[in-house]
Amino acid sequence: MSSDEKVAMASHEQAPLLQVVRVIPPRQRYSQNTIRRFCTIALSSTLIAILVLFLLPLRFLPGTREHHGRPSDYFPWSSPYPHKAWPRSEGLSYEDLQGVLLTTPKAEKAREWSHYYTAGPHLAGKNLSQAIWTMERWQEFGVPQSSIVTYDIYLNYPTGHRLALLEKAAKSEEALADQDGVEETNKADYKVKYECRLEEDVLKEDGTSGLDNRIPTFHGYSANGNVTAQYVYVNFGTYYDFEDLVKANVSLEGKIAIVKYGRIFRGLKVKRAQELGMVGTVIYTDPQEDGNITEANGYKTYPDGPARNPSSVQRGSTQFISIAPGDPTTPSYPSKPGAPRQDPHNSIPSIPSVPISYQDALPILKSLNGHGPHASEFNGFWRGGGLGYKGVEYNIGPSPPGLVLNLVNEQEYVTTPMWNVIGIINGTLPDEVIVLGNHRDAWIAGGAGDPSSGSAAMNEVIRSFGVALEKGWKPLRTIIFASWDAEEYGLIGSTEWVEEYIPWLSKAAMAYINVDVGTRGPSFRTAASPLLNTALYEVTSLVQSPNQTVKGQTVRDLWNGYIATMGSGSDFTAFQDFAGIPSVDLGFMASSESAVYHYHSNYDSFDWMDKFGDENWHYHVAITKVWALLAAALVESPIIQFNATAYADGLKNYLKSVEDQAKKSSSLEMQGISFDPLEKAIVRLHIVTLDFDAYAASLASAIDDDVPWWEWWKKVKLYYEVRRVNDKYKYFERQFLYQTGLDGRNWFKHVVFAPGLWTGYAGATFPGLVESIDAENKTNVVRWSHIIESNINAATALLK
């Protein structure tokens, strides 16, 4: 086709797609289309915002971070709680858990564990095989995270000793003439009037009393020395006993003290003797401490009867435990290899001491008859000696110049490893931890009461929890079990562990439950932080008593309900007094009708326990159940079973005691001191604790309410509130710590509880105030009043 033809054709064709066509606006289907579009966008944005706001809090809820970022954890249908069953127990109901803990412990198992622990010596730093055995048993029971924690500690071991009563023998005239110019005391020879045996009888009825490797009688941390001097009977060697002697002008300097065990910690007897210039201390157990169960009252002595064996000797530490426990060369920091070492003599003696039996004490005491004032010439605290039937008149002395004691004490001091066994059952809340502890070391081969009744019970507690784990239970809170070493020397194993882990414990530990002597008789006894009082009453009501007078009686029914204040003398000390962790100490003690307990003697043996202490081993089972149930209550309750009001009530009573002490002071200045600011601070705290405990109770009640799934946010809010309440309970006791520490013993940080400065075992309340009043130092009384008021106000502010 030519180009002309193409042009002609184009002039006749039309391209309708290229034509301009007039288009009118389409008719709207909805009259309010703009509003509809706006609403659609707004609704979509709102739904997205709600979804974001719903998911975002789940990312930061307590407990969600423990799921390691699994995508499903951040969807609304995943659980933000510690476990899916919260607030109920996971795997087992709480009632089923209690059932396991009440039915699993067995007397034959407790007896088996005790037989192992008491079969040979287990002195501190010399019991590695027992530590390994304990760790392996715990692993078998279902606690695979059990291991040994080692510290290098400063200890002494005995190498030799002697105590002899020497009597001057007159020399011939020729010998005296040859010694002209020599002092009178050197003009005579001495002969041995009595050589102390310093050991306990081997009894065929007591299997461990005759072991070849039995431990000699000695004192932990006693000083080396060889001294010969006159001696003085100083009663129980309390601070006030020594004051009585000073006031009576009894010569003490340069003398040896003969002192009875009892009333205060033995190390403080040595400390006061040392301060008054005495050169040695001899400590014996007087039958006065045995109540009615004595040979004088017609009872046969062990092994034939329940009275004390005359040869029994109480070993023990002479560390100044009210100044600082733990390794004396590493105060306030752990004794790890390479740790710097301090001079220990601020907290251990510099004069020698030895323990003896009353059999060895008899010739020494009888030789004082007629010398110096009689004990009855002093106050009532000096009366009641139990050896009168043996001819002892309890004269004070001093012994005449021709009658002296030669005291020899030879000790080897070493830095040596010791071994704590630590077991862990991880809970779903890693920042809420309950610790259970018992020490494993003993001064002797046996130690059936102290500590092996507690060690046997701990094994049964762990075995019981292991059964629960097998049944699918997982604890809410983390549980730590501790078998401490070197408690006997000065609470060393527990103290070093707390000093090492104090940063973590301060953030995580909720409570510490201690059992030292699990049983040595039928009477339940306890000491505790007041926060734990209510829980103690509840769990003791769940355990059947072995000595029922009426069928069905519980431990609570036969217990007088008295809860002592926390002092020292066992492993709760570092937790309560240094770290501010609420603590409790449990055990069955001897009654007035019980066989005499041979404390720290070879006769604290398996055979004694089997015949006299717990013949059917039922009290071992009972303390196991109380211990396990108390732990379970603290571990599993969504809101920890603390009661702050009981604490405030306790403070009120403690202050009343301080006020009474001030009024009885001989100082008019002390009598006139007003404690009104402290009283008002305690009243304010009491009001707040009532409200806080009531709020916690209301939360506990709300936890049991069924929340519909569409009101999930209420449960989330409740969880937040529970965590907040538990945190406040956790940190409540810490508010009573004063980091500067008590005057002259700054290791102790608690302003409410500490061992008495001159008692050691017994607890002192408001120790800063009490010691300032004793010293009649008004400035310090005022200072400590301000310190304590500040601590109380901090506790009040925490709970608001």
From TrEMBL:
Record flagged with keyword Hydrolase: yes
Transmembrane parts of this sequence: 38-58
Bias kind Polar residues: ranges: 309-321
SUPFAM superfamilies in alphabetical order: PA domain, Transferrin receptor-like dimerisation domain, Zn-dependent exopeptidases
Record-annotated PA domain positions: 228-305
UniProt-recorded Gene Ontology molecular function terms: carboxypeptidase activity
Stretches for region Disordered: 290-352
InterPro entries per UniProt: PA_dom_sf, PA_domain, Peptidase_M28, Peptidase_M28B, TFR-like_dimer_dom, TFR-like_dimer_dom_sf
Residue intervals of the Peptidase M28 domain: 420-611
Residues in Transferrin receptor-like dimerisation domain copies: 673-800
CDD domains in UniProt: M28_PSMA_like, PA_GCPII_like
Keywords: Carboxypeptidase, Hydrolase, Membrane, Protease, Transmembrane, Transmembrane helix
Domain of life per record: Eukaryota
Family indicated by similarity: Belongs to the peptidase M28 family. M28B subfamily.
Protein name (database record): Glutamate carboxypeptidase II
Species per Swiss-Prot/TrEMBL record: Lasallia pustulata
Species classification: Eukaryota, Fungi, Dikarya, Ascomycota, Pezizomycotina
